[in-house]
Amino acid sequence: MSASENTLALQHIDAEHHLHPFTNTRELNARGVRIIESAQGVYLRDTEGNRILDGMSGLWCVAVGHGRQDIIDAVSKQLSQLTFYNTFFNTSHPPVIELSRLLSTVTPSQFNRFFYTGSGSESNDTIFRLARYYWELMGEPEKQIFVGRENGYHGSTVAAASLGGFSSMHRQGGLPIPGIVHAPQPFWWGNGGDMDPDTFGRHVAQQTLQMIDEIGAHKVAAMIAEPIQGAGGVIVPPRTYWPELAAGLKQRNVLLISDEVICGFGRTGEWFGCELMGIEPDFMTLAKGITSGYVPMGAVAVSDRIASVLLEQGGEFAHGYTYSGHPAACAAAIKNLQILQSEKLVERVRDDIGPYLQAKWRALTEHPMIGEAVMEGLIGSFQFTSDKAARSTFPAEAKIGLTARDLSFQNGLVLRAVGDRMVIAPPFCLTHAEADELIEKVQRVIELTYAHARGLGLIA
Ligand SMILES: *Cc1c(COP(=O)(O)O)cnc(C)c1O
Fold it and tell me: What total of structural domains would you count in the chain?
């Protein structure tokens, strides 16, 4: 069977039997799915033999790069030793114990206890219950309401999707559930109007605090936010936003949940995004980079302040997942964290490859169609605009972002589109030569998209 016959056969079965996440499966089936067969380092290979630079680390997760034999060996060794045992009934096992110790050393100092889950979504559902339970134990059972943000992403389970601010998700299945409100996002390019970024950052922080005051802080349990919004389009808040917001939440006795599923474990050049932003959350949501995606895993970091109340005043926390602390996932996480430490990959993102790529990335704004280009560590985005000075966007029907995404894939680079914003989050092992290749490909994609938009008369 030739490569293309093999691809067609697989595409046919996929179309018959596979319901894809966040996908219009009818449209996908009509065009034919792309099948990724193998990956090594920062490169993917599909069944057609194309080599594609993975600008998205799989789905924000493969931080150390694809195909690391040391992680594969650690997982395999653990599976031979102890494939599975639960952590519910007065039992534990060495890998979950070692991972908990290790996490307490890499997370900010207030975090010394960890609850394990299978994903970021499950972690946020866990925090939703934990935070309300905490306030019950504190004798403030009225504190029930959660503040999320418009265009925030916290996962796809019922509580997580409700905490998130994607209206496309809320429209399906009657979300959000009661008790959740959404504050504005600190997206200066899109919403800042005539304000300068710093003024806008303070303005959005104050709007959020005002929302809380209108509800009554005695009814608000917590605010959840990503330090940098990921799935919402890599939106880096103005530097004034976080300090002002975090101080206001503290004053009002509202807990802060930092959703670190993307920002955590070095993505921003610090171990955690909250450290980059200078804030001290009460909970952190962890997933993705915790195992670099080698085995699914999520976790909740619980601060000492919360944990002491749960332990001293609480009883049984009636919550858990069969796979909480799965031995194979723990083994993958331990080895992954050891690699981040021993190969100094977080420092590499902060001091070497991060700044190297950022300089070239920011220069993309020299192009007439690029409105802004931002990057912290190795997470970035650029914005297509039909008019730079007016910061205007293309009509949604023009699907400029999706066009660019497809052109990018065809040119051997994975870029993700969020509306007309293109996002990138490559593995930390990206070399300078690979970064150059990435930028060359991005420039080609921008030129092709520009030609496309001009052909449609959407830009001069
Ligand atoms: C991906 C993501 C989640 C959800 O994680 P899953 O493992 O897909 O459930 C939650 N929060 C953020 C910020 C994410 O990017």
Answer: 2
Measured in Å, residue 450 CA sits from the centre of ligand 1 at 32
CB of 262 closer than 6 angstroms to any ligand 1 atom? yes
How confident is the model at residue 170, as a pLDDT? 97
CA–CA dist 344, 56 (Å, integer):
21
**For residue 274, how far is its CA from the centre of ligand 1 (angstroms)?**
16
Query: Quick check: CB of 266 below 6 Å from ligand 1?
Result: no
Distance 121 CA to ligand 1 centre (A): 6
Q: What are phi and psi of 37, to 5 degrees?
A: -105, -35
Please choose, from the candidates 116, 135, 19, the residue with its C-alpha nearest in 3D space to the C-alpha of residue 321.
116
Same domain assignment for residues 317 and 365: no
Tokens of 213: 């005051």
If phi > 0 it is left, if psi is from -120 to 50 it is alpha, else beta; for residue 146 that is beta
State pLDDT tens for residues 158-190.
Answer: 999 999 999 999 999 999 999 999 999 999 999
Per the structure, the complete domain to which residue 310 belongs is given by 69-342
Cis-peptide into 427, omega within 30 deg = no
Q: Looking at 308, 324, 342, which one is the last position of a domain? A: 342
Q: Which residues contact 269 (CB under 8 A, 6 or more apart)?
A: 276, 346, 349, 350, 351, 354, 376, 377, 378
Looking from the CA of residue 229, the nearest atom of ligand 1 is 13
Q: Is residue 15 part of a domain?
A: no
pLDDT score, position 59: 98
Ligand 1 atom nearest the C-alpha of 160 is: 10
pLDDT above 90 covers a percentage of the chain that reads 99
The answer to whether 353 touches 64, Cβ cutoff 8 Å, is no
Are 330 and 240 members of one domain? yes
**From the CA of 120, how far away is ligand 1's center (Å)?**
4
**Ligand 1 contact via 153 beta carbon (within 6 Å):** yes
pTM of the model: 0.98
Instruction: Kindly state the helix (H) or strand (E) to which residue 125 belongs, with its residue range.
Output: helix 120-137
* Radius of gyration of the chain measured on its C-alpha atoms: 22
Ligand 1 close to Cβ of residue 231 (< 6 A): yes
The reply to whether 165 and 73 lie within a common domain is: yes
